[in-house]
Amino acid sequence: MKVNILALDGAFDTGLATVQDVFSTANELAGMLNLDVARFDVSVIGMRRKVHTSQGLRVPVVSADEGGAADWMVVPAIGDKMPDALQTALRRRDVADAAQALREHAGHGGRIAAACIGTFVLAESGLLDDQKATTTWWLASLFRQRYPAVRLDESRMLVSSGAFVTAGAALSHIDMALLLVRQASPELAALVAKYLIVDSRPSQSAYVITDHLSHSDPTVERFERWARGRLADGFSLDEAASAAGTSKRTLARRMHQVLGKSPLSYFQDLRVERAVHMLKTSDRSLEQIAELVGYADGVTLRSLLRQRIGRSVRELRANN
């Protein structure tokens, strides 16, 4: 399999290195164990002759022409992790050139994988429009604002959609590279994961710091404060909007932009979150906990907990 890794100036060191390490480890193990798997022919290409990582290390790159045609173009993250710096970086000329290179690669039937902030570079090309995708969880709001045509689900660690694979934050670079190895050989991918000590991580939701997201928007923060104070009570959108100091429509729009959820859906998530916390930290029964978080009985709460587990299992199977 031919893989071209697109390294832009200011590349995220960990992301770039881990993608290369996964493929080199796969080649080493395939040779050592005499597995009938073709080697991964990996080139690191750049839009400029000189490329440095965000930590200042020089990256040896070749031009796209020298890299040659590839089955996959892989886009690691750049090191600009926060909204203002990222939006400035996305206006760079080399990013526009990269977007054009991605369009040309896709036009010739090539597939593309992007991880973390690399998903923004891919989205800049327009290729993700109408496709399912994931991205770095704390930048999901910005992603939705810039690319409203993309069907974003930032709770996922990996999303395959058509000719594209997108991965979530930071170390999801490893998950993305393992997915490409898995397409060549599930056995080899499993071995690489064991050698690198990588656990299955089908969802980003376990890593999301919801407070970070909600506190980034005053309207959502006011809603969350109101919601946490009345989890044992019924949900009222009128009261929620009043507490957030806005209209019902504006509240719903802001919730979707920041968290990708409706006010009611997030309210239910907070109930389940508190229930799980009490199950872990108290000796109360499920029935008692259900009452404390606003459910009439433990049956409903048990069903919601099972749904959460089932969703994680389905995501794991989809990514494997």
Describe it:
There is one protein chain. The protein has 320 residues and is an alpha/beta fold. The chain has 2 domains: 2-196, Rossmann fold; 210-319, Arc Repressor Mutant, subunit A. The protein has 15 helices and 10 strands. Helix 1 runs parallel beside helix 7 (172-184). The radius of gyration is 22 Å and the shape is globular. The two termini are 19 Å apart. The mean pLDDT is 90.
Brief digest:
The chain is of the alpha/beta class. The protein contains 15 helices and ten strands.
Low-confidence stretches: none
Give the spatial strand order of the biggest sheet: 2-1-5-6-10-9
Average pLDDT figure = 90
Instruction: Specify the helix fraction band.
Output: 40-55%
Query: In total, how many beta strands?
Result: 10
